[in-house]
Design goal:
CATH topology of the largest domain: Aspartate Aminotransferase, domain 2
Radius of gyration: 21 Å
CATH class of the largest domain: Alpha Beta
Helix content: 25-40%
Order of helices and strands: HEEEHHEHEHEHEHEHEEHHHEEHHEEH
Structural class: alpha/beta
Number of strands: 14
Strand content: 5-15%
Shape: globular
Largest sheet: 7 strands, mixed
Distance between the termini: 17 Å
CATH architecture of the largest domain: 3-Layer(aba) Sandwich
Strand order of the largest sheet: 4-10-9-8-7-5-6
Amino acid sequence: MQQDAVRRAHVVIAGGSLSTEALPGEIEFIVDHAAGSKLYDLEGRAYIDYVLGSGPMLLGHAHPRVVAAVQRQAARGSTYFSLNREALALAEMIVSAVPCAEQVKFVGSGTEATFAALRLARVATGREKVLKFEGGFHGNHDYSLVSVTPSDPPPYPRGANETAGVPAAVQDTVLIAPFNDAEQAGDIILDHREELAAVIVEPLQRALPPAPGFLAALRAACDKAGAVLIFDEVVTGFRMAWGGAQERYGVTPDLACYGKVVFGGYSGGAVCGSRALLAAADPIAKKAGINMTGTLSGNPISAAAGLATLQVIEAEGSGFYERLFAWSERLNAGMVAAFKRRRIPVQAVGDGPIFQFFVQEEPIRDYRDTLHADGAAWLRFCHGMIGRGVFMNGGKVYCSAAHSDEDLTATLAACEDVLSGETGR
């Protein structure tokens, strides 16, 4: 049944995949359903899930509170293209939690959120250029896709236009700086202060933690340059702390972008910040601004799922994050130890419930440091883990509140088997 479904998928879906990666045929599978920490394929085989839908499922799959909230809302209507009580309640919760938030504007995805935030910055400053960090990913709009994974990076601040279909003019609008190099980033910001509208950064870049003082230095440089500092918290929002990376790292941006956890596994995005900056998206203000809406912006089902997710987290308080971080650190340490027992040089870079392995000895602080890693070795390991019923896809490892001690034991056992060369299926 599963092999036939995989064959059909390759006929009607480009690459037979819904993401930018495709699994090799011997481990390729199609998800039938998911619950808690696990995915189940068409043949009923379970996989401990560390992809978590590319991150949104912080509570695990099909959490009862989230399912009930979605079912209630679906019976009341699926979408309105109008202000609704669920979107209002979610906006109030975001504003109460996020340090930089006075107001929220909803969009349809994290990609739309970062794209809109850059537009807001251009309106606020009257400037056009933006600065992002090499290796940083802010969704699938053209500005984000400059210098995400360049194999031969050009000198800073020039970006690499590595994705087909992105206009060359976009590359000229995006400045590139090295993550975790406060001095060089600050120099680029101040050198371009007359034309720079915004600096956008993942405060935890993919899985790379910010060096002490780095984010604060960006805050100071943006203040001097009159540029808007944007935190892309699509991944880190409500995952690193109740107030997100802003709370965890103690630096407040001008705007912040949200998605993933905030919508509980459903489509959605949001930009939050000061009333002054969001005034450009205010349809009542009647001044030059931006069109910041879409068919599913503030969708009530997405908002209901997000609100239920955040209510579960809020009810547990600080204990939620203490438990999540402690479990994640045990998994991280156990996997690192398994590699080191075999004298395989490896680093697990990350912070709490997000980490990624790099097979190399040299320390990693920025994207260019990762170019020395044996990415093929990590990908082979992940494919071996899938064969053992543990879903890792070669990128980041996401941990959830649904992962159990039994999952930890099974994951570390699978890790030992893969590193020892034992086969799975």
